[in-house]
Amino acid sequence: MKITDVKVFVTNPGRNFVTVKVITEDGTYGLGDATLNGREMAVHTYIEEHVKPCLIGRDAHCIEDIWQYLYMGVYWRRGPITMAAIAAIDMALWDIKGKVAGLPVYQLLGGKCRQGVRLYAHANGETIEDTLDKAAQCIEQGFDAIRLQAAIPGLKETYGVLGDKKDYFELQGNRPLPPEQEWSTKKYFKLVPELFAQAKARFGDDVEFLHDTHSRLTPIESAKLGKLLEPYDLLFLEDASIAENQENYKLIRHHTTTPLALGETYNTIWDCKDLIQNQWIDYIRTAATHAGGITGMKKIADFAAIYNIRTAPHGAPDLSPICFAAHMHLNISTHNFGIQEFVGFGNEISQTIFKHDMRLENGMIIVSDAPGLGIEFDEVQAEKYTYKRSYLPVSRLEDGTLWHW
Ligand code: CS2
Ligand code: MG
């Protein structure tokens, strides 16, 4: 089944998404997500200029060989741009294979391990009370796992808090230059233990809470926070410290039993190998779009299973519904799946572009049984919403020192 064309679309229904369409000789096509937040055009060019010419004429059924060809064959292995390109091609090839077989991709991955995919929702607010009120709304919608992020008193803007924006698209979608955010670890420590103490007091043990530190703490500060949060039994503390030095987590793990999650910025199994084999974390958070697609995620999940580590795929607003659909097929068929981050199916406009029949029921996703990934991309609608450069913020300490965002 020869590949005859590869198209790359960058659309902005409120935020940028990079969508790849692989087309074969009989017209069967597959879709993949190549969205790299703030670097969309780099991936677009990489695919158009360096990947597409090598794919024309190749057999779309040879998913593993094409993955290795694009990974081992390029010499400059790994990295977010290369791996987002490989990821999108990989997702599209799995989509094609499912369509040809007349089966949803999860059936090709080993079939269902569970009836639905458990999700965690986001609750954020300007105060602790506001955040917990949002959590109560999530509980009413059927979620039993909720990420809590509250504004840090004394700082203009806080990661993960919408402020006066109506949704993450509005918050992230229109930043022609990187906005600068302030950070204070001292002010952060004054807030977070109190946030979870009040959450536990208000909601008891019926709901599991999570938190994303977003790489802001040094290892010993992460250890301190983990210890302070132990009484509140978090499902996990995410990105407690920076991910580059996996050994950071050896120190953190030594001091606290708060479960640790990491991995949304990782691109290959090599990035997380030490973390996994030393059991320094409890959940691996890679995303199909950043970690080499369905093929890349399977390699990581199976390695993690040997060390009793579960998957908790990244599910941020800057991963398109195509990536989310790929995650559903992975999550329903991966034995050591833990939980999936969920921030909704996108805004109204994006839902006219990315169409699917995934169902949200009681904090779970019921996966599509349509052949392939079960998602459609409306090119005509997408073309109405053209690329708009938008950056992620940059973080600085109060004295101006550049810090981790
Ligand atoms: C966050 C992400 O959802 C999360 O866990 O860490 O929203 C992250 O900030 C974005 O993906 C960055 O593009
Ligand atoms: Mg995160």
TrEMBL record:
<dbReference type="Pfam" id="PF13378">
    <property type="entry name" value="MR_MLE_C"/>
</dbReference>
<dbReference type="InterPro" id="IPR034589">
    <property type="entry name" value="D-mannonate_dehydratase-like"/>
</dbReference>
<dbReference type="InterPro" id="IPR029017">
    <property type="entry name" value="Enolase-like_N"/>
</dbReference>
<dbReference type="InterPro" id="IPR013342">
    <property type="entry name" value="Mandelate_racemase_C"/>
</dbReference>
<dbReference type="InterPro" id="IPR029065">
    <property type="entry name" value="Enolase_C-like"/>
</dbReference>
<dbReference type="GO" id="GO:0008927">
    <property type="term" value="F:mannonate dehydratase activity"/>
</dbReference>
<dbReference type="GO" id="GO:0016052">
    <property type="term" value="P:carbohydrate catabolic process"/>
</dbReference>
<dbReference type="InterPro" id="IPR036849">
    <property type="entry name" value="Enolase-like_C_sf"/>
</dbReference>
<dbReference type="GO" id="GO:0009063">
    <property type="term" value="P:amino acid catabolic process"/>
</dbReference>
<protein>
    <submittedName>
        <fullName>Bifunctional D-altronate/D-mannonate dehydratase</fullName>
    </submittedName>
</protein>
<dbReference type="Pfam" id="PF02746">
    <property type="entry name" value="MR_MLE_N"/>
</dbReference>
<dbReference type="InterPro" id="IPR013341">
    <property type="entry name" value="Mandelate_racemase_N_dom"/>
</dbReference>
<dbReference type="InterPro" id="IPR034593">
    <property type="entry name" value="DgoD-like"/>
</dbReference>
<dbReference type="InterPro" id="IPR018110">
    <property type="entry name" value="Mandel_Rmase/mucon_lact_enz_CS"/>
</dbReference>
<feature type="domain" description="Mandelate racemase/muconate lactonizing enzyme C-terminal">
    <location>
        <begin position="128"/>
        <end position="259"/>
    </location>
</feature>
<dbReference type="GO" id="GO:0000287">
    <property type="term" value="F:magnesium ion binding"/>
</dbReference>
